Amino acid sequence: MESIKKPKSLAKYIAKLAHMKKGTNIVILDLRKISTMVDYFLIITGTSDIHNRAIADEIVEKLKTKGIRKWHLEGYSYGHWILIDYVDIVVHIFLEEERIYYNLETLWGDAPTERIEDDEP
User: What's the whole-model pTM score?
Assistant: First the structure.
């Protein structure tokens, strides 16, 4: 089994954590061939600022127990767009309106995309 400390495995693990906290419309963008700053973006939709913070808390706490610490956290107090930076992976947790407005999937439209279906375990 591949270590979750490898970026691709870590991205999938984070997606699973977000899904378990009822995050929806989860997308992993593979930026390795189009960005020198980050390997993957995870984009997740939550239903409220409280829900977004709960998703962020789950990700940060579970990764911390595995010895993986965030490099930076932004937007947590407002909760409409929370960004968690793990250097190789950046997690974006949006409210639906903000996700539509900023439309990162289109901005990074050349990136290979993996969608995590809402009914996947």
Answer: 0.92
